[in-house]
Amino acid sequence: MSSINRVCGRIALVWALAAMAPTGAAVWAQTAPKPMTLAEALDMARINSPSIGIANAQVEAAQSRQTQAGAGINPELSYSVENFGGNGLLSGMDGSESTIGLSQQLELGGKREARSETAGRLVDAAAIRALISRADLDQAVRERFADLSAAEERLELARSARERANRLSGLAQSLVDAGREPPLRLLRAQAQAAAAEAQFNIATAELSAAQRALSALWGGGNDFVDAVGPWEFRRTEERLNAAPDDTLDYRLAKAEHEVAEAALRLEKSNGWVDVTVSAGFRRFEATGDQAWIAGVSIPIPIQNTNGGAIAAARAEDRAAELQVSMALVEAVRKLNDARSAFDAADARASALENQAVRQAEEALNLAQIGYEAGRFQLIDVLDAEEAFASIRNALIDAKLARAKAAAALIRANAN
Which domain does 390 fall in, by range? Predict the structure, then answer.
């Protein structure tokens, strides 16, 4: 009696789990998903992703700053009136002197060229960051597409398991009614059917979540997508044999070092003092005389020679140089790790695809046929069902791991 109570308790628990996820199934059934291949998903993300728009805007901003960096200093126009509104001979405007002048600050030490060069290096670095953003987005699309494909296969597996469990439950009911099976076997078959129903609802909800996760990459968080075609895809321009010093991460470190070098040259040029030259025209109201004036203004560099900024830029340049060395080591590690992970995942998936699943499916079919013919017991069918589901889920996991390893391998070789 205690065994029957335990089985009944399990049935109640499983039906409670099954009731928790019907909403996802209903929503999914009401909305027809749009078929989409991995190549189409990659194109959709590249066109509509906010992250790509942000990266492109940052490149445009860097280019605009480069244009501004090449601009010179505006000349200054001045007008002044002296010796008026006083007393005696200087009362009123009769004794005043008025001057109109023009002055221009001359940048020395190559400041303008250094600014322009630094801004140009920043444009190069921003362009590489944009490429990195696109490569990271591609990897995310590949991974989430694989998640969606795996969720679809798990849903199909759950649907098939539910159909088999319902058929097995009906058969067990017939055998119990005929007196060929004890009632406890029927309870176990019904528990298996309830568990299959719960798993189907869970798989449906996971599929909806995977659909939203993929479409969120291009801003369509409520789009329903049906992943079709291969889980893995590589564009013709995407190589898998990039040299470590040709990868995007290393190129970015190199570009940032060039920015630091240009910034050091800029700070050195800022140590030069600038000369301001001026010229003007003066009128003496008392006599009506007129005269030209000219002048030169030169700062005296006794308090500020920009030494602190130069020292800081030199230290940053040294740090950027060391970062280049670290980036090369990291690039080698990422390339090797990505290749090893893919080879291992590919070997595991291939082994499961070639033999294990086929054998498990054949064993399940034989167990079902034997049970219907009265040669096997229900426990044999349930064991075969569990083994088949375990192997199929292992294959899905292996294919998912291989697809994500392929995505990481393509990202590591991005250049």
Answer: 2-72+107-271+306-412
